[in-house]
Amino acid sequence: MNSLTRRDFLSAGSLAMLALVADRASASVLQHVSAEGKRIGIIGLDTSHSVAFAKSINGNPEQYRNFKVVAAYPYGTKTIPSATDRIPKYTEDIQKHGVKIVQSIKELLKQVDYVLLETNDGRLHLEQAKEVFEAKKALFIDKPLAASYKDAIEIFKLSERHKVPFFSSSSLRYIEGMQDVLDGKYGKVLGADVYSPAKLDPSHPDFFWYGIHAVEMLFAALGTGCKSMSRTHTPDTDVLVGLWEDGRIGTVRGTRTGKSDYGGTIYCEKGNVKLGSFKGYNPLLERIVEFFDTKKVPFDTQQTLEICAFIEAADISKNAQGRSVNLSEITSK
Fold first, then answer.
1. How many Å from the N-terminal Cα to the C-terminal Cα in the chain?
2. Residue 72: beta bridge partners?
3. Which residues touch 199 (CB under 8 Å, ≥6 apart)?
4. Shortest CA distance to 100 belongs to which of 137, 58, 138?
5. For position 41, what pLDDT does the model report?
6. The predicted structure's pLDDT at residue 35
7. How far is CA 92 from CA 2, 104, 223, 227, 277, in A?
């Protein structure tokens, strides 16, 4: 397997050959795969999340309730070079953790009980999630849930129609310090200022691509009920200001220069909480496997829909020179 080159991978039929080699190389590992009922499949090897998640889950079975990532389908986007170019390497890397490569989502679904939908391209999530829902497999959909509010609504409808639960989240929802806020340690949340990198890609509305990390932190802290928002945009920075129905204000700063960092301040009745650093994916992964075990979503998923509406409103505000946009302009369509 180590002798395969990138050119080999990209040649016709090489993905099938790579899968065959992987099967043989990892046979001894796969003999110890978790019993049926604990098998996880991954859709999309165009993001580092896929390899990191498989490494953590398969390397720490007791921490992750004895779940195991057993199979992966590499695609993933085929049209965004910054993501597509990662697939050959991540395909090789994930096999080192005993993960079998398959040729289709259909094939994947025959071999797993639960799904991590990791495709970096949110435009594909509705189509890919549809197959998973129809197969009656509970799933986690990595950020962004979709690349539009319309697609996000359709995903929720499919979940209801097939009676299959799911949730979607950025790992930044579980940034250090946030859980104390959510547990009420500091009393009612009065407002929040958060920040994250906000790289842009022309394939997605701006904050669906990367700035969603900061938006997720904002809604984790303030919850649902955002009434309107406005956006100030420059090439290097965005500032989004949200007004909640009860008068609270939350802001997002999205940066494209300087050090890439995540954090913020949550203003509460009993004190102001400075969010700590991002310390990895484990808090999110623990909630994912708990969800797979219990079928209980770890937070109010209406936040996820409101996040999508907020992000679409941000593009409207940008194109309208920063005017305030009611989220109802998005949700009432």
1. 51
2. 42, 101
3. 209, 210, 211, 256
4. 58
5. 98
6. 62
7. 9, 17, 40, 46, 30
pTM (two decimals)? 0.88
Question: Domains in the chain, please, with CATH?
Answer: 6-120 (3.40.50), 172-331 (3.30.360.10)
**Residue 9 in this model has a pLDDT that exceeds 50:** no
Q: Are 119 and 46 in contact (CB under 8 A)?
A: yes
Where b means 16+ CB within 10 Å and e means fewer, 257-291 reads: eeeeebbbbbbbeeeebebeebeebbbbbbbbbeb
Model confidence pLDDT, tens digit, residues 96-155: 999 999 999 999 999 999 999 999 999 999 999 999 999 999 999 999 999 999 999 999
Tokens of 200: 């842009």
- Give, as one character, the DSSP assignment of residue 124: G
Preceding amide of 242 cis, omega within 30: no
User: Which residue's entry shows tokens 């309107």?
Assistant: 228
Q: Which amino acid is at 202?
A: P
**Mean per-residue pLDDT for 309-318?**
98
Task: Give the chain's length.
Answer: 333
